[in-house]
Batch of 3 targets.
Target 1
Amino acid sequence: MAYILDEAGQGRLLSYFDGIGKLLGRSERREAFAIYALGLLGEGERKSMEPMAARACGDPKRCRAVQEKLLNFVTDSPWRNAPVREYSSRYAIEAMTAEQPIEAWIVDDTGFPKQGKSSPGVQRQYSGTLGKIANCQVAPSLTICTRTQELPIDMDLYLPESWAHDRARCRAAHIPDELEYREKWKIALDLIKRNVAAGVPKGLLLADSAYGDTGEFRQQVHALGFQYALDVKVRTHVQIVGSDGSVSMPMSVGEAAEVIGTSMFRSVTWREGTQHPLSSYFAAIRVLPAHGSTQEQWLVIERPSNDHPATHFVLSTLPKTLSHEQLVAQIKQRWRIERSYQDLKGELGIDHFEGRSYRGWQHHITCALACYAFVVAERSRAFPPSARSSQEPDSLPCAA
């Protein structure tokens, strides 16, 4: 069920571009943004500057000039990213929340495969998106969700230690001298704080163990007022809280899974998959984490079946009154971010940027997020929750 912009939608697009243009200031920036954004939104397999310029002008003699205009806008022009990202988020959130509230914030990271060694932050490193170690850039991201929509609102580049400690290499990629090494969880925390300050409505915070296993990360997001459901690794230590309030000796979550035995696990189906219902065996016990919080919370333990060892552990501050089914439904929402990554990469070319400057990467990401925000707003209007029971829209059902 695709959606093509009608006359009213085209009017909204022009108004949206005008709002971003006011933040960009100069007329040449406004014009370049419009060309670049329409290139990302439009047809075309490759969304890098040269093919977008060729599609935009249609005249081979002018193509080089258009490409230079885009190159200057993305790589050299000193416009600020944060105001554009905030404007885009507010625009989409208004449409998303017309019928449904924000329910979740999802932290994750994605990989951008690269050739060579000059792109900022590139090295051989593990990417969960790629499922392997590869030559790539990695970017932590923040996505917010209602029950039926997902919106990536922020993203930042991970700068490995090998880069951060080589200032000559950083300067060649135009990475600011003040930008130092930050672990991925610290980057994610900065994204969260920035969007809390911008007034984005809060929801349950979800992240995998690369973030949730750090006690300080859990502590700080809780201090920011979030409930969370964060994956932790098997060696994370907790104390089991008994029904009488007694507290066990510290043990790993893997040991806790063995201590409680198979009788505590029950089968739960959390959603319909593409081929069959998705289900597993879960146990939920009350614990005190050994690091990062003194608050009693849930430890949710998952195993594929009762004769297999536990494979997945989640610490969550969700209410004590929730049932197993409600807990599992909440903590299993992280898969939704993959749909956004697929759209951003497959349709909007967020991983097609070929520049080698830090500013250029940030500007390209801002433009892609702004385009996706408009698409999500249009999708929310065209396919409201009340109309979704009969048919779900295809991925990215909007063309400019």
Target 2
Amino acid sequence: MSLLKLSIATTDYDHFRDFRLGPVRAEGLDINWLNLGHHECFARFTANREFDVAELSFAKFSAQVTRENSDIIGLPIICSRLFRFSSFYVNKNSKIKTVEDLKGKKIGSPEWAHSAAVYMRGWMHNDMGVDLKDVHWYQAGANAAGRKEKVELNLPDGVRLTRVADKSLSEMLASNEIDCAIIARPPTCFLEGHPDVERLFPDYLAMEEDYFQETKVWPIMHIIAMRKHILEENPWVARNLYNAFLESKNRSVERLLDPAVSRYPLAWLSTYGRKMQSIFGEDPYPYGIEENRATWEQMALYTYQQGIAHRQFKPEEIFPEGIMTKVII
């Protein structure tokens, strides 16, 4: 039997590396792996479906997988996941001290379908009493002008979104043209020590630990998407890919937790990793549907509320049927 050729495009994650470089193989598959920046993966897959399998923003995936007769499907494989209370940056002159102070303010994010911002807008709207309509939203590139939305939107009635093509969020935050920015990575103005720019939640780590304990949600930023016709023609591909990604991730976690074999030159990283096990469980970076149900369901709600997803999906709808079938030996 000849191997099925597939192209995969992702960022260079350690938890994918053993699969990408060959120590782990997906049975029956000949992989051409393109190691690209995640923004390039997103842009080329959403616009042109240039790859068979690709890393994709969870928010953008939610928009495309809920289209009528969608041509993509997901795998419950997590490329990137991060809590995002650290992602609020404010101008001190706006005198914002609490999340409630964001009512009536101008808040920017790089795209509306930006997973980090989706989670935090959803938290504000559902948990903190700051309605989507209470804010004037802005969209612009994080540190450079010209970034555009990659998926279609159907914004809720009353939501104000202004797109700015000739300035970056970093510029606007530093000049106080906006009061706050929700950005996945620190904006240039913050990194360069602008005297007026600070984090809204400097004690974000404690907030995030408490949030997980209360909700069991660990926000997922990017997942693996694949073209649906591949699965229709070869139903076995999804599970074989999942198995390989899972083994590669497990090997990465083992290295992280064992200071004798860790690839990372940091003194207490394995100690910190074991602390994560005490919080998240034996597998501190779980794949799968049930293991992440609270997070899948939260993004389904938030993307629908925010006019990104066309409907509120259930986790089982966005992944191949039977992908988590148990195999007992």
Target 3
Amino acid sequence: MPNVHVSIATWDYDHIRDLRIGEVRPTGIDVTYLDLNMHEIFARFLANREWDVSELSFAKYIAEASGPESDLIALPVFLRREFRYGIVYVNRNRIKKPEDLRGKRMGIPEWAQTATVYIRGALQHDFGVPFTEIDWIQSGVNAKGRDEKVDMDLPKGVRLTPMPDKSISEMLVSGEIDAAMCATVPNCFGKHPDVAQLWPDFASMGDAFYARTRVYPIMHVAVMRKAILKDNPWIARNLYDAFDQSRRQSLARLRRPGYIALPGHGEQAEAAMKTFGGDYFPYGIKENRAALELFLRYAHEQGIARRLMTPEEIFPQGIMVKAAV
């Protein structure tokens, strides 16, 4: 039986390197691997489904997956994870604490940007600032104008105004907005004296959040066109196994002193293992249930998911089943 051909596009992470260069080969599958900028990957895959398996924003995937007759399904492969308390930038003269955001104008590149989903959820549930009490201004972070890439039904009370002629960075400097929530750093940060991070201690806040919730926020997932599974449903598990093997080999390398040009990275990897109780970058459903359920709830509350989904229904049925030994 000849191998099945599958095309894959992701950014150049170390934890997918061995799969990308062919050192790890998924059983029964020949891979064409595209190493592209993540924003190009998102835009081209969402517009035209140009390859079979794609890195994708978790929020954008859920917007697509919760729609009628979605043609996409995800692998429990989480290509990017980050704590995101550092993405809120404010005019320090107007905003000093989260409560000050009520009634203010907040710049945002896209409502369905995964990083902002987590922080809107944190503002609402942890700091008592509902997202309906903020005026949202949509534009590019450092370029003028930005459009959503997925369809959504925004909740009643959300005020989202497009601003096609100015960037978020420009508006922060001019005072036309009071704050910004964006994963890309505005050009004005570090250059304009009035622009600061709302939470300069964001790193310790991420540590505290994980200690409290055991959630390491998922940013990007690997998704696939359902059509490639129609005749060969085994493709999903074999791809998952290959992604996971590549990940495990990468994490082992990161513990070796001198592997990357970052002083002390081996010690940092060992420290992360202690903090996370072992695997600090897990794939799979069981190991990530708390993170998955939190994000799915936030995505539904914020109108990105059309319904409240469960972790099991966003992945191929039975993908984590193992043979008895």
